[in-house]
Amino acid sequence: MALLHRASIVPTKLEAINAWLPQQPWALDAGEVETLGAFRFDDPAGEVGVETFLVRDAAGGVLQVPLTFRGAPLPDGERWLVTTMEHTVLGPRWVYDGCGDPAYVATLAATIADAAGEAREVVRQDDGTEVERDPSARAHGTGGAAPLADTALDVGRALGEDAVTDVDGWTLVRVGGATLGVSRHPAAAPSDPPAGVLTGHAGEATGPLLLATLTR
């Protein structure tokens, strides 16, 4: 379950994404993007927010932007830092490209391997009550692939530079004897997706998309 708070955030998540994307080799021509939807994964330790955004670029294409949100800097994570932001409930937050953050890598791998889906979203109200809401995007793993090192990654340190590469619109993360492929420009998913992939969609804004793969 992802516990959310009614709060103001500066900069907003979309502002942070728009400022960061032009520096990425897979998004040089993205222009101003708009959010189509987002889904979250559960961090088992409950420390790191893990949220993936599906956004539409200026040309009408879909980009996938996974982010992590931390209450303290990720050691050795400067390469992956997207921005810092102020959250009116949680205080300062350090925001990272998920592909460099083991918390995202572990939760993505586990979701694929376990044929699981996005986390439930529960919003804590000002009076302390909690209300569940529907995610604005959905994701589902197809199972059939062993998670990376049983997903027991060291969530305290960023992944080494040689573990993460960008190739033809995909970010490849090699760790634990396996490779996670994160599609930065997700295309339509096959009607009968194979084992070892993550598919998802942002409501009626997109059809089923192939978001990620897990291979050994």
TrEMBL record:
Pfam families listed in its UniProt record: Mak_N_cap (PF18085)
**Maltokinase N-terminal cap domain span:** 20-101
Write down the NCBIfam families for this protein, in alphabetical order. Answer: CG0192_rel
Annotated region (Disordered) at 123-147
Q: Which UniProt keywords apply?
A: ATP-binding, Kinase, Nucleotide-binding, Transferase
Mark out the compositionally biased spans (Basic and acidic residues).
Answer: 123-137
Against InterPro entries, the record matches this protein to: Mak_N_cap
Question: What protein am I looking at?
Answer: Maltokinase N-terminal cap domain-containing protein
Q: Does the keyword NAD apply?
A: no
Q: What is the scientific name of the source organism? A: Nocardioides kribbensis
